[in-house]
Each structure stands twice: as structure tokens, then as C-alpha cells.
């Protein structure tokens, strides 16, 4: 505040003048304060084409026009020569011929109500959904019918496949059970015959019954394996005993 007071002293420090009416002329008051602040340097800020002495009285200021009105009119209507007008028009035409104005599509504002209030939305005319043509509607209906028919055919084929698979599985188990029963019956018959021949002590000699349990057609017996020693001489002896009905032990127990 001290710098402001030194630059702009109060009006009470200046003696009143008989030719100055501060209450009636605020412009004179402003000029007087400027003159007091600038002092001798006030002449540096004056216009060389005008008078160098600025009077603080209202009578002397009447000879000067209004600064505000003059500057405003000069700013709005600057003086332009004829040659500059012609050049400006030609430049304007040349610019618009090279760069035509761009048309901006108008947009439509739509208000929608939500919990926060009405919010404007800018929607261009391109975003408006057009009505679907009749041919497109018919095509969609045909596609729905084709898809429904295809699904129905697929479901029927699926049921048929499951039925065929179920019948095939049932037939397989039926044949399997029948074959299993026949095999079991055959094995049972073979077992009974084997036991009957084994326990028969009346048919033939003892050596003949023994030779039935031994495979004499090969070099090895059924009860032996290939890692045992050679028993060919033993088989020859069994064959000789089988042929001789009077061999020792041929009569049984």
C-alpha cells in the first residue's frame, strides 16, 4: 500500500482551483491526477501532432473530441484505400474458389432422462435406423424355417442312431451269452469223458491206458517241457509194453 500511496497521492494534497470542478467533470479529475503523478515527464507521453500543454479545466478540454468515440469508430471502420479494397476482394474470391465452404451436417439433440437428470445427446441423421426392406424380412423368415427344419432332421437322425446302437449292443450281448453257454456245455462234456476214460480199468491193459495219457507221437510228453532231457528211449519202452499183452503189470492191480 505504501507504493500505491506514493504513486497516487490523495486528492486532498492538491489545492482546489477556481476553474476546476471535480464533482462535475470526472475527466478533468483524472487528467489532473495524471499530471500530478507524472510531473515534468508528462510532456513525453503527449502526441507531437497535438498541443503539448494539457489543461485540467473543462473549458479547455471542450476543443478536443471524445477519445472513446473516436477510437471506437476508427477501430470499427478503419480507413481503406480503393486499391486495398480491390486487392481484398480479389484475394477473397481466389480463396473461396480454391477452398469452397464445407457443409456441416446438422445434428439433432435428444434429451433422455436418467437418475442424474436430462443429458443432451447429439445424434446425426446417419445413426437413425432405417426400416428393414420387405425382401430382407422374407429372407430372414426363410432362414429361420430352414434352420428349424435342419434341427428337426438332426434330432430325428440322432434318435435313429441311438436306437440302432442300442439294438446292436443288445444283439451283441445276446450272441455272446449264447456262445458262452455252448462253450460251457462243451467243456463240461469233455470233462466228463476225460474222467470216464481215466477211471475205466476194464478196457485194455494198464500199459495201454498209460500210453493214452502220454503223447508218443512227438519226442516229448505232454507233461514235460522242452527244457527237460531226452525221453525218447523211455517212450520206446512204453510202446513195447503197450504191444505186449503179457508184459509185466499189463493185467492191472
From TrEMBL:
It is found in: Cytoplasmic vesicle membrane; Membrane, Coated pit. Clathrin is the major protein of the polyhedral coat of coated pits and vesicles. Its main location: membrane. Residues 67-76 have a biased composition (Polar residues). It holds the Pfam family Clathrin_lg_ch. Residues 1-27, 62-82, 179-204 are annotated as: Disordered. Belongs to the clathrin light chain family. Residues 179-201 have a biased composition (Basic and acidic residues). It is a peripheral membrane protein. It comes from the Eukaryota. GO terms for biological process: clathrin-dependent endocytosis; intracellular protein transport. GO terms for cellular component: clathrin coat of coated pit; clathrin coat of trans-Golgi network vesicle. GO terms for molecular function: clathrin heavy chain binding; structural molecule activity. Keywords: Coated pit, Cytoplasmic vesicle, Membrane. This is Clathrin light chain.
